[in-house]
Structures are given as C-alpha cells and as structure tokens.
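[09:14] KT: can someone run the structure on this one? pasting the chain below
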Amino acid sequence: MASGNLRGIVGKNVAKFRKKFNITQVELAKKMGCSSNFIALLETGNRAPSFDTLEKITRILKVKAQKLFE
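[09:31] RB: done, structure tokens below
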C-alpha cells in the first residue's frame, strides 16, 4: 500500500471517530496541543501523523490504534 493511501485511510478514520464523539477539529486540536489546521491536514491525508500523534489521538478518541488503519 502506498504511503499516500495509508495517510488517507488514517485521516478518514480520525475524522470518523472524532465526529462519532461529537468533537470538533478545534476541540481535538486543543486536547492534543496542536493547531486545528494540523488536524484538517491530517484528516485530508495531506499530513502524516507521528507515532506520538497517533498515541494522543487514540487516547483522546478512546480507540485502538489498529482501528485507525482499517
């Protein structure tokens, strides 16, 4: 799988779980200590998350890491 496709899958899943918990991009960004622009770039697949970022996302959204890659 190409890295661009993987970024897109992770991004879509971050958006899906964020919306499931009724959290806005701004709220998620505040909880993560980053900008809402970064969250937007992440969700559109234009930015790849680091392992630290993935760990924060899974903790905040209460989702297992593998769910972000499905």
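[09:33] KT: thanks! The mean pLDDT is 94.
[09:34] RB: yep, looked fine to me
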